[in-house]
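Incident log, structure service

09:12 report received: a user says their structure output differs between two submissions of the same chain.
09:20 pulled the input from the user's history:
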Amino acid sequence: MGQSKPYRAKALVVEDDPMQREMIGLLLEESEFDVIACESAEAAELVLQGNGDNVVLMMTDVELAGNMTGIELAYAAKKYRPDLDVIVTSGKPLRQRLPEGALFWAKPWAPLDVIRVAEMKASELSHRGWRRSS
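09:34 re-ran on a clean worker, output below:
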């Protein structure tokens, strides 16, 4: 019999800039998250509709490829998963309200901010006994 691996929390990164998307993904992977990366809100919404149960953190830019903005995605994500931690980022001032519980980070933010949030989320999940064998 093989050993089962501990279940890892998933983070959804939605960013149309490939370098930013990769950097955020690497930072989250360092904090022991499995990362699902999308360049459009439409692709991210499909993830949330499909296997979104396992996604505990989503980080999205406001400006994305496709027709939907990161703000619209934040509202959709909270509809599917009200307990999902959502971070919306932009280099421009935010002109729309975010859904309740979503955070806004103005660019440029520090990579350490991503690690700090990921570590806090991982700690919160482990205290709830969320990590389980699959």
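09:41 both user submissions now match this output. Likely a transient worker issue. Closing.
09:42 reviewer note: The beta strands are 10-14, 34-38, 55-61, 85-90, 103-106. The two ends are 14 Å apart (CA to CA).
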